[in-house]
């Protein structure tokens, strides 16, 4: 699959490494293609490096691994029509304290700005240290939401590559705030309560 990852920070880099290793073709989108760190990552994973709009031109899936505050300016310039669009953002403040997003969630904002995108909220409730190595945390799950069942199936397959035991579908676009709430719980435990980032949310069942 041709995957454009917009953002070359810790989340974008982790996803690029994991999916490139699984055989997916990666294009990294950044506003500064001349950035040395971005070029180093591109060389490491065998990815092309381009501006955001160019990176998404031929992509089958697009990952938004950018700060939440960048979405409003970024999304309208991207080629997202008909493409699986994965929203990894979280509306967090600097403390970090989750804050409500426009229209109720980041995914709703994307859907408003790019109504023809096949948008799915995913991969936002785990730190970059375990993302891509989720199998190290037995039972780790990723929560998703979105209105396109086929797009969510693609995201579930990509989640399996990352090592998640299960992709938990919480529902349509209106369920995106629940996925962001899962991230808020993880952030609170990791940073506000001092647990640290080396853990994942999991679902367990009692023995039969």
What does this 3D model show about the protein?
This protein has a single domain (2-192), classed as NAD(P)-binding Rossmann-like Domain (Rossmann fold). The chain contains seven helices and eight strands, in the order E-H-E-H-E-H-E-H-E-H-E-E-H-E-H. It has 208 residues and is an alpha/beta fold. Residues 94-102 have low confidence and may be disordered. It has helices at 10-21, 36-45, 52-56, 71-74, 106-113, 149-162, 176-192, and strands at residues 2-6, 25-29, 48-50, 61-64, 84-87, 118-121, 141-146, 166-169. It is globular. 34% of the residues lie in helices and 17% in strands. Strand 2 (25-29), helix 2 and strand 3 form a beta-alpha-beta unit. An eight-stranded mixed beta sheet has the order 3-2-1-4-5-6-7-8, with helices on both faces.
> Main sheet?
8 strands, mixed
> What's the CATH H-level homologous superfamily?
NAD(P)-binding Rossmann-like Domain
CATH class: Alpha Beta
Q: Note the run of SSEs as H and E.
A: EHEHEHEHEHEEHEH
What is the count of structural domains?
Answer: 1
- Radius of gyration, CA atoms, in whole angstroms: 16 Å
Using the 3D structure, state the CATH architecture: 3-Layer(aba) Sandwich
How much of the sequence is in beta strands? Answer: 15-25%
Quaternary state of this entry equals single chain
Number of helices: 7
What is the tally of beta strands? 8
The coarse silhouette is globular
Q: In the CATH scheme, what's the topology name?
A: Rossmann fold
What would you call the structural class?
alpha/beta
Spans of at least 5 consecutive residues whose pLDDT stays below 50 are 94-102
Q: Report the span from N to C terminus.
A: 39 Å
Average the pLDDT over all residues and give the rounded result.
91
Q: Please give the share of residues in helix.
A: 25-40%
């Amino acid at each position: 699959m041709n995957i454009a990852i917009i953002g070359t920070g810790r989340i974008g880099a982790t996803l690029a490494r994991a999916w490139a290793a699984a055989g997916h073709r990666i294009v990294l989108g950044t506003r500064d293609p001349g950035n040395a760190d971005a070029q180093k990552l591109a060389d490491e994973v065998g990815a092309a490096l381009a501006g955001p709009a160019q990176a998404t031109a031929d992509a089958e899936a697009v990952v938004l691994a950018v700060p939440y505050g960048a979405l409003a300016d970024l999304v309208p310039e991207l080629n997202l029509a008909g493409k699986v669009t994965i929203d990894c953002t979280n509306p967090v403040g600097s403390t970090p304290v989750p804050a409500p997003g426009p229209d109720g969630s980041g995914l709703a904002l994307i859907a408003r700005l790019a109504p023809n995108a096949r948008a799915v909220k995913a991969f936002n409730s785990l730190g970059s240290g375990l993302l891509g190595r989720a199998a190290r945390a037995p039972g780790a799950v990723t929560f998703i939401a979105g209105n396109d069942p086929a797009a969510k199936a693609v995201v579930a397959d990509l989640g399996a590559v990352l090592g998640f035991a299960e992709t938990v579908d919480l529902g349509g676009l209106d369920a995106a705030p629940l996925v962001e709430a899962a991230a808020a719980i993880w952030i609170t435990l990791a940073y506000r309560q001092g647990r640290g980032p080396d853990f994942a949310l999991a679902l367990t069942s009692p023995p039969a």
